[in-house]
Amino acid sequence: MSAAPAVERIAPCSGRAVELDTGDELVVIDPMGQQVSDLTAFSRDDTNEYLSSGRSIDYASKLWLTRGDLLYSNRSRAMFTILEDTCGRHDFTLTPCSKEMFERLYGEVEGRPGCEGNLAAALAPWGIGRDRIPIAFNIFMNVTVDGETGKVAVLPPLSGPGDFIRLRAEMPLVVAMTACSAGQSNNFSYKPIDFRVERAPSG
Amino acid sequence: MSAAPAVERIAPCSGRAVELDTGDELVVIDPMGQQVSDLTAFSRDDTNEYLSSGRSIDYASKLWLTRGDLLYSNRSRAMFTILEDTCGRHDFTLTPCSKEMFERLYGEVEGRPGCEGNLAAALAPWGIGRDRIPIAFNIFMNVTVDGETGKVAVLPPLSGPGDFIRLRAEMPLVVAMTACSAGQSNNFSYKPIDFRVERAPSG
């Protein structure tokens, strides 16, 4: 019997990347509550294939994905299945926070790298730069939409301490994720994010 | 005095690309009503800079953009200003219809190229392939969102014959647009789309 896989911690305002094989499960955990993790993924066989919000929303016919839903690539192939979800509310419409976003929306003179910069830094070993960071699957991010006006609002996450989402990889992937840097997304708490990779039994 | 610029027609289920310089205005017209045009754009100075739905929605804090709103690139620079809009309802959340989407959602055995394929074909002279077609600005596409459940629905466009949107280019662009191939988006009418380019007065 192998030891339980270790929980790893993503420090506040930073990012990490991991490789997954088909069948591996990634558990993303909000250890303290009210924190967001922007997640994106690329096919390891060809990094021109990436996680696509627009495809996933189209195929699910809903903005908010949860247990049982699939996350698709730009090539319409399943990248992940959501196996468990104790929070139930995530965003898939907004780009990761970025240097320019902090300057524009938060009035920072010299914006911080944000999730976009942290995802790109984590993905640099795979040759993936900032221009190629798409709309992420923003785990635990609570974005509301007014169905009459289309107005969107970023509210504090609904996640409490220990809430998690479990994703099964449906192809060989490189996955990057963050502990979010945007105050509005995490109720100005800038906490860490935990994750655990559970490897599929080999052959 | 120069002659009025000609109106050009995009045949049903096809696409076109045009180059715009800063200040040029592109008028996209629904000649018969209830037709959709998926539009995307890339910076001519560096085609790694592209029209970003996620940035545009984030900066506008609303899903549905109209007169006075800006459309942003992935690098957070303004690509277009919407100068006029006689319809008022467009989508910016769904990927263009594609071969795989027709097979998956419409049950076609061999899916048609769709707006994705037609945009890629139109952009081929600029070296832009299908993997790089992002979520488009889906002009006249009427997608509703249930603010309680997040459920999205594609309804017939609200555009009538002659409705149009006028976009001013804010940087040198290559713009591609379609007459949409998806029955659900155009109420199963598969009509053409017209457009007109009004060049900025030269220096």
Automatic annotation (TrEMBL), chains A, B:
InterPro entries: DUF1989. Residues 8-174 form the DUF1989 domain. It comes from the Bacteria. It comes from Luteimonas viscosa. The lineage of its organism: Bacteria, Pseudomonadati, Pseudomonadota, Gammaproteobacteria, Lysobacterales. It holds the Pfam family DUF1989. This is Urea carboxylase-associated family protein.
